[in-house]
Amino acid sequence: MTPTITAFAASPDRGRGLARDMRVRWALEEVGQAYEVRLLSFAEMKEPAHLARQPFGQIPTYEEGDLVLFETGAIVLHIAEGHAGLLPVEPGARARAIAWMFAAVNSVEPVGLEREACFFLERDKSWYAERMAMLAGRIRDRLGLLSRHLGQADWLDGAFSAGDLMMAGVLFRLKPTGLVAEFANLAAYLGRAAERAAFQRAFAAQMAVFTAGQSGGR
Ligand code: GTB
Predict the structure, then answer these.
(1) Do 37 and 95 share a domain, yes or no?
(2) Do you find a cis peptide bond into 3, omega within 30 degrees of 0?
(3) Tens digit of each residue's pLDDT (9 = 90 or more) over 58-69
(4) Same domain? 100 vs 51
(5) Is 105 in the same domain as 171?
(6) What DSSP character marks residue 159?
(7) Tell me: the pLDDT tens digits for 75-121?
(8) How far is the CA of 19 from the centre of ligand 1 (A)?
(9) Are residue 66 and residue 100 in the same domain, yes or no?
(10) Are residues 32 and 126 in the same domain?
(11) CATH number of the domain that residue 97 is part of
């Protein structure tokens, strides 16, 4: 059964691959699973039909027959559990790969989101510059420890896994801050992830939505 995901009809990132449907598209591409996309306007995201899929009125969601899922991490885990290629078979390595998925969204993404919220919502405050510097410091601390763990390895724990997919997804969104580039091994890690053919296909697919929107078609 071909799953359907939801994505922004008009992503504010203008096709830069920063919205979270990118991670789901990438996971589906990694495992070779075709998918369909339901594009939603911001108004449609808050309507009952979408709130039934995603209680917070956000994208992405994932539908496969009767199963409706939200939360990127849960969706990527479901995809990884249903197909070979994104999770190791050995139970210990599999559990560690899942731990890295959680680390991406629980230990690294939140510091980036705090900075983003400050950037978008608190620019008019007298303490803006000071807070931004403090939040950049927090990101730097997290990335420094991640960099220390990665060392000279290609991936976080053995072969590329859903843990790397989620971590690279988080780092990709942090890239415009310039903070990832401060850590050469993390910049190279992200480069390796983005060079993967599946990433490239996912990126092109979300960019095509933006391009179609620009030309008036869909
Ligand atoms: N925890 C949820 C998950 O992981 O699935 C979070 C989902 C989420 O934040 N979705 C965002 C959304 O629907 C899109 S990805 N926002 C609309 C709303 O809340 O009303 C976040 C995002 C949005 C825009 C950019 N951008 O333009 O650069 C980047 C990332």
Answers:
(1) no
(2) no
(3) 999 999 999 999
(4) no
(5) yes
(6) S
(7) 999 999 999 999 999 999 999 999 999 999 999 999 999 999 999 99
(8) 6
(9) no
(10) no
(11) 1.20.1050.10
Cβ-contact 58, 26 below 8 angstroms? no
Q: Do 55 and 108 belong together in one domain?
A: no
Q: Order of strands across the sheet with 67-70? A: 36-40, 4-8, 61-64, 67-70
**Nearest-atom index, ligand 1, CA of 21:** 15
pLDDT score of 22: 98
pLDDT at position 217:
53
Return the pLDDT at 140: 98
Domain around 132: 91-196
User: Which ligand 1 atom sits nearest the alpha carbon of residue 18?
Assistant: 29
- Domain match, 95 and 192 both: yes
Ligand 1 binding pocket includes 24 (Cβ within 6 Å): no
72: CA distance to ligand 1 center in Å? 10
Rounded CA-CA distance 201/34 in Å is 12
Do 52 and 146 share a structural domain?
A: no
pLDDT at 215: 82
Residues of the chain falling short of pLDDT 50: 218
